[in-house]
Amino acid sequence: MAKYKRILLKLSGESLMGVEGYGISLEVSHRIANEVKAIVGLGVEIAIVIGGGNIFRGLSGAEKGIDRATGDYMGMLATVINAMALQDALEKAGVHTRVLSALQIHQVVEPYIRRRAIRHLEKGRVVIFAAGTGNPFFTTDTAASLRAMEIKAEVIFKATKVDGIYDKDPKKFPDAKRYETLKFMDVLNQGLQVMDSTSISLCMDNKLPIVVFDLFRDGNIKRAITGENIGTTVS
Fold it and tell me: Taking the CB of residue 205, how many other CB atoms lie within 10 A of it?
């Protein structure tokens, strides 16, 4: 039985790559789609925010000499590509899905309108929010926090490559300690790499919990939504 009625799932663009170094793995996108389908079957209303790092990241573009604002807009367009790929995978799995973009691209996706997004969710459709907030200098983490607040989601699930939040990089340090629970101020004070400080502050101010867990363990999205104690909860 689902613990939540309406949730926001944050996916990184890199999660769509799988073992590939760039672009979109159809195998991974279809696996994510099937996991989301199982959640929809529980009656949960699901919104998704997806990054664009598998195609283009604004910050890395700026480091190479591209104007930061231009780079961020390029990154936003990358998220639209990822959202369309995930929509295709979801619809092939039989899940009604809508992509709503903060940048207006009428030929391929709907414009983001808050009341429309909520109506889609109420009708049982999965909603994918693309193009971040529509503004440069804001990450897709911040977009996830903002959209979650706007649609009155009960929780943000951040699906990553690791099984929670650690005090240091577990890939580099075998003695890294995983936290089961954290307070928002702990994340900010310790500079833990969960989400950027703007998104953490938004969640803290609005008392919106974040659950960080491993996307690549089969069934983990369902475990998280049914309230199983996996990953790290920030509240």
Answer: 11
